[in-house]
Amino acid sequence: MKKHFYTTILIILPLFMWAQEKTSTTPEKYQYLAVHLGAGFPVGDFGSNTTSNEEAGFAKTGFNIGVQYGYKLGKNLGLGAGAFYNYFNAAKTVSVPDNGGTITVSLDHWQYFGLTVGPVVTLDLDDKVSLDLRAMAGVASANAPRVKYQGNALLKEDWSTTPVMQGGANIRVKTNNSRIYVFANADFTYLEPDFTITSYDDSFTEKIKQRMSVLNLTGGVGFRL
After folding, report:
1. How far is residue 183's CA from residue 188's CA, in Å, rounded to a whole number?
2. What is residue 6's three-state secondary structure?
3. Which residues pair with 198 in a beta bridge?
4. Global pTM?
5. By CB neighbour count within 10 A (0-12 exposed, 13-18 middle, 19+ buried), where does 128 fall?
6. Are 111 and 84 in contact (CB under 8 A)?
7. In this predicted model, what pLDDT tens digit does every residue of 96-150 receive, in sequence order?
């Protein structure tokens, strides 16, 4: 009896040890949701104030609000989705050419909102800190500014739907409550909407394309689901 008992233990023990090792090394799957806000910095043509630059957007530093969802599928790979809104004031005085001279106009603001999805690479730096690298694509709706001349409305605003690309990195730091993270985000967003600009008396219409490149730096809180 003892012989059979010991034989059984010798057979089961290696299997038990292998199962324990496999369980401890199997990547944990989980989901998280993060809410964050911060500053949006127009870069390139979008933030240019040079009147000789036909692509200048005259956009000023604005703000970004975002929601991010992540699903970790394995040790390093996952899927992500995001929703975002950006708002930028624009230059209040811009001198533009007019019949050999210049006139001064004012712009109110730029804004856009959108949704993106894409792959996420997660690197667990230690037990509490994770780095997420994202490459996302989606769709956005962008708003061109209303233009005034001498206090009177000159050009109407316009909305345009356009593809959007977004790449960035998140840092997630666990708090004492292991389901709550301190969340920091940096991302670069690019979209190139086509606008139809029309005067208020409908006597003038022009189609323009505006490159909108933005660096967002935000912080917030994340929740493990």
Report:
1. 17
2. helix
3. 205
4. 0.83
5. middle
6. no
7. 655 555 667 788 999 999 999 999 999 999 989 999 999 999 999 999 999 888 7
